[in-house]
Amino acid sequence: MQSIRERIREIKDFPKPGIGFKDITPVVLDAAAFKESVNALASWAATKQPQLIVGIESRGYLFAAPLAFTLGLGMALIRKKGKLPGRTVRVEAPNEYAVEIFEMHADAVAPGTRVVIIDDLIATGSSSISAVNLVEKLGGRVLGFGALVELSFLKGVEAVKRAHPRIDVFSLIRMES
């Protein structure tokens, strides 16, 4: 995982002053690091025996799509309000910067479907919790939430586990600052 960690760069004061944005684009730019990331997420996710992978807009798609392909599964999308053309179900999704609305197509997750949700990063956990709430609103059974990076100093994993104690939360890289 060190080769992946070394490729994550911090952009100071983005998207606003005081924020140290963790940029994962160098990971996907490097074929070996990208493959290692997807394979590690797939090893974890396979143990959950999901029937569907759900990716969160937008950087979560970078890992969710190849993960779904690797596991031979379909992938459903969580998008921001107004981006999906069909009938949708929505939840409020507060994050570090604003309150957004997450949506999924109303028919994206059949009731009882075993789901693993994938994003690029877990910060405060609020977006992660909203994503789980949305999948559960559609009747899906969330088995795990996986991400490339966890910003452990923001205690997001703990927040997700408090909100949804039965869900396994996994990250490849933990960053302490």
Q: What would your notes on this structure say?
A:
There is one protein chain. The chain is an alpha/beta fold and 177 residues long. It contains 6 helices and 9 strands, in the order αββααβαββββαβαβ. The protein has helices at residues 2-5, 25-29, 31-46, 59-71, 126-137, 156-163, and strands spanning 9-12, 20-23, 52-56, 74-80, 88-94, 99-105, 114-122, 141-151, 168-175. The strands form 2 sheets. A 7-stranded mixed sheet has the order 5-6-4-3-7-8-9, sandwiched between helices.
Query: What characteristic shape results from the CA principal axes?
Result: globular
Order of helices and strands: HEEHHEHEEEEHEHE
The neighbouring-strand order within the major sheet is 5-6-4-3-7-8-9
Overall pLDDT level = 96
Strand content: 35-45%
- Low-confidence parts lasting 5 or more residues at pLDDT below 50? none
> Helicity, in percent?
25-40%
Main sheet attributes: strand count, strand direction, barrel closure: 7 strands, mixed
Give the count of helical stretches: 6
The value of Rg in angstroms is 15 Å
Number of separate strands: 9
* Derived structural class: alpha/beta
Please report the distance between the alpha carbons of the first and last residues.
17 Å
